[in-house]
Design brief:
single chain; 6-stranded mixed β-sheet; about 260 residues; globular; alpha/beta; about 30% helix
Amino acid sequence: MKEIRKGDIVGRKSYGKDIYFKVNHIIKRTDEKIAILSGLIERIEADSPIEDLEIISKEEVVKRIRNLDKRIISVKEKRSNQKLISGKILHLDGDRKYSEKSYNYYKKVGLNATVKNIPEYRQPRVVKRLLEIYNPDILVITGHDGMLKRGKKYHDIYNYRNSRYFMETVKEARKYDKEKQKNLVIFAGACQSYFEALISAGANFASSPARILIDFLDPLLVAQKIATTEKYKYITIDDIAYELRDGKDGVGGIGANGKLKS
């Protein structure tokens, strides 16, 4: 059997290889090797003993990536006889490849968006400076997440891999927003994120109420809906849920007014 190395795409045998992961790095713990993983399509982080991993063939990887690309292509662009100026989006993403795909998506649908690849732990430190530079109407804060002990300690922020960083980033953004009185719309979170903490911190929309995996496109679709909706209209999760892979189980929130400028 081929030795598993950093950069390989793998599946967990004990989970039926339901999620494809990229191996970020490998660490040694006493008598076993542990791989630190991030989802290839889903926004999740995990770790696994090397013995439980199996390398996924290039053909299967290509097939899954093509399926994602097909979903991106199938999203209908919002069209109008008028020239519309959408709300400005600033998107912080902890994953480099997702950052690139997000930028390409925003460009495809004609949105005014800036995407920055910022590791989750650094996002609270840089968000204020980036808000000052880009002055967005909508802030997307995401990357990878996951529960350390799934099904337990739902209300322990330290049982989540990156939720505390997303929460701190939301709080920093709200401090900025209070100074500028811009009424910033915020989406925060990734797979299995601590939904209640993110909403309490000041996010308008967040993942994941049911602590499930969310689709790569979910945060982008929320941002797109807000950016292309008139200011006098109030958007709730009911207006967006049908477009999301798992509806209100994956994303929830308190809603926000649209940010379409004209």
